[in-house]
Amino acid sequence: MINLDYIFDQMKENTHTIHAIVSPLASNDMANVLLSLNQAPFLAEYYKEVYEITKNSHTLLVNLGTINENKLISIREALKSAKENNVPIILDPVGASASKVRLETVNYYLENYPISVLKGNYSEIYSIYHNNLSTTGVDSKNINKEEIIKVCQKLSTMYNIIVVATGKEDIICDEKETLLLKNGSPLLPKVTGTGCILGGIIAASYSFKENLSAIALAISILNIAAELAIKDKGMASFKLSLLDQISLIDSKTIEERIIYEKL
Predict the structure, then answer these.
(1) CATH at residue 213
(2) Is there a contact between 204 and 59 (Cβ–Cβ < 8 Å)?
(3) Which site among 21, 59, 234, 247 is 20 to 30 Å from 14 CA-CA?
(4) Residue 30 contacts by C-beta under 8 Å, 6 or more apart in sequence?
(5) 170-209 as b/e: b if 16+ CB within 10 A
């Protein structure tokens, strides 16, 4: 059994500052989720302040959900600060499988900054490794699981990072180990911003323990909460119930319900 107890208890007992540069479409939900997990989100994007804020944070989350010239300048300043001040970086390459600009931006970040965790859906991870677009939107296309596992492992070795590929089954790997997580709900992809929320939870849990178990905990918080959420009324009820379940979840529930496989 992977050890999730210690990390979850530390999150509940201690508050870390998570500097998150994310899409405004999901920023409110993500911030509220972090607050419900006893963490302190700081969603600063002004280029004159992001260096200082990143320096004083426990992790930096960079999400490419919505980008423009000013935001990319701010991201560059935040990444520079994280690099110079040893702040772990979580990179969510939203849309890297659909836009040449996004794909080139992600590759530049991977080559020039010490990214700790790369978290994307199957298509985004596939496109980053092959340096080739694979979709026309931000949603993942159907890619063979065995193939994406190999891609994750190769990317992890290439950049010495933890790689997370989200899909029907979620893949986490570093250079030594690969985990396959099997919890979740088919309704999760129907709610805008759940990937951004996951990025925030990963940034929080990773700030307490920089390993695969922390990532597994983060994914399990979201996926198990989705399993427990209301599903028979409508998408609005599901979303609100999902947020409720994240705030109510405990380590015992996670340990009892988690389904995973070590490869």
Answers:
(1) 3.40.1190.20
(2) yes
(3) 21
(4) 20, 22, 41, 193, 196, 197, 199, 200
(5) bbbbbeeebbbbebbbebbbebebbbbbbbbbbbbbbbbb
Q: Name the domain count of the chain.
A: 1
3-state secondary structure of 103: helix
Domain around 206: 4-262
Structure tokens at 179: 């985990």
Cα(153)–Cα(175) distance, integer angstroms? 7
Distance from C-alpha of 107 to C-alpha of 9, rounded to nearest angstrom: 35
Cα distance between residue 119 and residue 113, in whole Å: 15
Single pTM value for the model = 0.95
pLDDT per residue of the chain (263 residues) written in tens, 0 to 9: 567 878 999 999 999 999 999 999 899 999 999 999 999 999 999 999 999 999 999 999 999 989 999 999 999 999 999 999 999 999 999 999 889 999 999 999 999 999 999 999 999 999 999 988 876 555 556 678 888 999 999 999 999 999 999 998 999 999 899 999 999 999 999 998 999 999 999 999 999 999 999 999 999 999 999 999 988 889 999 999 999 999 999 999 999 999 999 98
Cα–Cα dist 61/91, whole Å: 6
What pLDDT was estimated at residue 132?
A: 85
Q: In a 3-state reduction of DSSP, which class is residue 101?
A: helix
- Report residue 149 as tokens: 């596992």
Instruction: Report the distance separating Cα 9 and Cα 19, nearest Å.
Output: 21
The conformation of residue 193, written as its DSSP 8-state character, comes to T
Is 119 marked within a binding site? Answer: yes
59 is in an annotated binding site: no
